[in-house]
Design brief:
The chain is of the alpha+beta class. 35% of the residues lie in helices and 21% in strands. It has a six-stranded mixed β-sheet with strand order 1-2-10-7-4-5, with no helix packed on it. It starts with a helix and ends with a strand.
Length: 290
């Protein structure tokens, strides 16, 4: 079993049902890039194991598969992969034993082998050849300086500023430093909690172009969401479900059992209060940079 096999089963099931990725996005509220990552077995694209397990369970449930069993398969593979990575790191930190210094291969004597001892006559021949080469090079250099350079005519000064070919010497043009394009500083995501009470919360979002929300349930709950001015959508979620929503300007949510949900905005956890069994309204507004 591998990550790719888990994804392939989901992809084949979706195709058997005659559904597209867009159909799955509409029903599961999971972004298309994450659904494609699941089908291709690229779970490293999904931001965190909590997300991955929630997406697998929700997608499998939508396809009519056993979501809990597939989550268990994913967890086993993730643990095996983590253990293999740790074993590989441990193996890299332990240097292999060098057989050169093992007891069985250490030479018993440092004396050179008789066949490897230098021959005195060969050494003398080599030194003689090198001495001849040095003398020859010295003679060539001396002859060049005495007989050639000494007889060359003195250069005629050029008062016109022209080079010997008769053309004016052009000074090399200095290349102007290309101006670096202005670096546009990207404003980091900022979640401004304007108010937070047991029944209402208002949050202003700064630094992004749209509102991207992912909700992971830790308990069974009821949820109604309105994206901008669209018709609200309501659904009941089970523990471990994951849904995603997006809006251009404003998103309004109402959660029953607000203590049983985690709200992420662009993968950042929204730190607002929630009560088990309580109903809470959330207003998320996109604020343009001033």
């Amino acid at each position: 079993m591998s990550f790719e096999e888990i994804g392939l089963r989901m992809k084949e099931r979706r195709e058997e049902l005659g559904l597209s990725i867009d159909d799955a996005v509409k029903e599961t509220k999971i972004r298309s890039k994450y659904l494609k990552a699941i089908e291709n077995g690229h779970f490293d694209i999904i931001p965190g194991e909590v997300y991955a397990k929630g997406f697998i369970k929700s997608y499998a449930k939508f396809l009519g598969l056993d979501g809990s069993a597939m989550v268990d398969e994913y967890k086993d593979l993730a643990q095996s992969s983590e253990k293999m990575t740790e074993d590989a790191k441990t193996a890299q930190t332990e240097p292999p034993e060098d057989p050169t210094y093992s007891h069985s291969t250490r030479p018993t004597s440092s004396a050179p082998h008789p066949s490897r001892q230098p021959d005195g006559r060969n050494a003398k021949r080599i030194l003689t050849v090198l001495l001849v080469i040095v003398i020859a090079l010295f003679g060539v250099n001396y002859a060049y300086n005495v007989f050639i350079l000494a007889n060359l005519p003195d250069p005629i000064p050029n008062e016109s500023g022209l080079d010997p070919s008769g053309s004016e010497e052009e000074e090399p043009e200095q290349e102007e430093d290309a101006e670096d394009p202005e670096e546009v500083e990207q404003q980091p995501l900022e979640l401004q909690i304007i108010s937070d009470s047991p029944s209402n919360a208002e949050v202003h979002i700064v630094g992004v172009d749209s509102i991207e929300v992912t909700i992971i349930t830790t308990e069974r709950c009821w949820l109604r969401v309105q994206e901008d001015e669209e018709e609200p959508e309501s659904q009941t979620l089970s523990e471990g479900d994951t849904v995603s929503y997006s809006a251009d300007n404003i998103m309004r949510m109402r959660a029953g059992n607000s203590g049983g949900i985690e709200i992420y905005i662009d993968d950042e956890l929204l730190e607002v209060s929630g009560q088990s069994g309580g109903v809470k309204n959330y207003t998320l507004k996109l604020i343009s940079e001033q």
